[in-house]
Amino acid sequence: MMGSMDLGPLLEALYGRRVEHCVESVGSTIGRGRGDASSRSYARVRIRDAGVAPQTSVVMQLPNDPLRSDEGGGRERTRELAFVNVQRCMKARGVPVPDVLLDASRSHGKVLLQDLGDTTLEKRLGSIPAGGWAPEYDAAVDLLAELHDRMAQPDPACVAYGRHFDRALLRWELDHYREWGLEARLGITLASELRTRLDGAFDRLVDRLASLPMGFVHRDYQSRNLMIHDGALWVIDFQDALMGPRIYDLVALLCDSYVDVAPALREREIERYAARRGLERGAVAAELHLVALHRKLKDSGRFVFIDRVKKNPDFLPHVPQSLEYVRRALRLATDVGDLREALAEAAPGDFGSVV
Predict the structure, then answer these.
(1) Closest by alpha carbon to 60, among 115, 9, 8?
(2) In CATH, what number is assigned to the domain containing residue 302?
(3) Pairwise CA distance, residues 252 & 265, whole Å
(4) Are residues 9 and 64 in the same domain?
(5) Which terminal CB of the chain, N or C, has fewer other CB atoms within 10 Å?
(6) Counted domains in the chain
(7) Local structure of 321: helix, strand or coil
């Protein structure tokens, strides 16, 4: 258990002497006891000795196989903990990420991190009316544009630049939706002819996604992975970063399963991001709608998988919002009639309204 772990040797290594401490549960994404959607878990360490700093930190408890990604798709293990590797690169380039205070991933299966508090962007949005969200999203989009600019130049020492959202991974995530978000969730097995049509539509979507402009992708830039600390936004949960469709992170933010981002706000932030990055707004919007189809289908299936396989039902309430974003994208994306029709036939309760 997190509360009974022996942190004495790690804290002695960090502070240079033995310190009195206690371990507390925490409520933010960087410290959910259940590790949010990942297999990591977190707790806050509070130092009782007044003469040392920092007075608090967050301990990340790693799973038994910490070098394997939680995101699936058969990716190979990394030689170094990806969180530590990507953090080093992002911090060196001025991206606001938590400091790694002590990397004991190999010796103790733990990493001590800077404590960013408990206020996620999701929590902040929940404390104000939706009509007042624009400044919060302006700040998140500005940070994303800055992140993408700062991370644009490849670094061979950073694992993110050697990993790619290739056709195999894109297709695997759509199959993940079919298996869990469609057949397992609805308790059906697709007829052979319908399965063939859906597979063909998925293949064509993957072809289009693979042809989009690519760039550095955080992979989960959404309201639970943005912390508000010292009056500014900080980025967490970046260990799965890779090269992928340049607009992927904007999709994660503006089609967030945990928050209903209104279409008018989405359009405002698309324009803002395009302006900040010097991109053509129409191209950004077209790419966003295509990537949203993929991302939100995957999310809806992933949440069911986490429930059925990892025995964590906490994400099931967010399946309907994920599917609503799919419906919005099906109405806005171009040349996806085959996918629209196949999904409507396979899951009329989810997608019948968009045909």
Answers:
(1) 115
(2) 3.90.1200.10
(3) 14
(4) yes
(5) N
(6) 2
(7) helix
25 and 49 inside one domain:
yes
25-29: long-range pairs with CB below 8 Å, 24+: 26/58, 26/118, 27/118, 28/116, 28/117, 28/118, 28/119, 28/120, 28/123, 28/227, 29/120, 29/122, 29/224, 29/225, 29/227, 29/236, 29/237
Domain limit, last residue, from 113, 146, 172: 113
Evaluate if pTM is beyond 0.90. yes
- Do residues 87 and 149 share a domain? no
Only one residue has tokens 């993408």, namely: 148
DSSP letters spanning 218-245:
-S--SGGGEEEETTEEEE---TT-EEEE
User: Which domain, by its residues, includes 43?
Assistant: 2-113
- Backbone φ and ψ for 42, nearest 5 degrees, come out as -140, 155
Residues 27 and 58 in one domain: yes
pLDDT by residue for the chain (355 residues), tens digit each?
444 468 999 999 999 999 999 999 774 344 444 445 567 889 999 999 988 999 999 999 998 777 666 565 545 566 799 999 999 999 999 999 999 999 999 999 999 999 999 999 999 999 999 999 999 999 999 999 999 999 999 999 999 999 999 999 999 999 999 999 999 999 999 999 999 999 999 999 999 999 999 999 999 999 999 999 999 999 999 999 999 999 999 999 999 999 999 999 999 999 999 999 999 999 999 999 999 999 999 999 999 999 999 999 999 999 999 999 999 999 999 999 999 999 999 999 999 999 8
Are 85 and 221 members of one domain? Answer: no
Determine the Cα–Cα distance for residues 96 and 233; give it in Å rounded to an integer. Answer: 7
Which of 93, 113, 133 is where one domain is finished?
A: 113
Residues 6+ apart with CB under 8 A from 106: none
**What's the token pair of residue 195?**
């399965």
**How distant is the alpha carbon of residue 8 from its chain centre?**
32
3-state secondary structure at position 64? coil
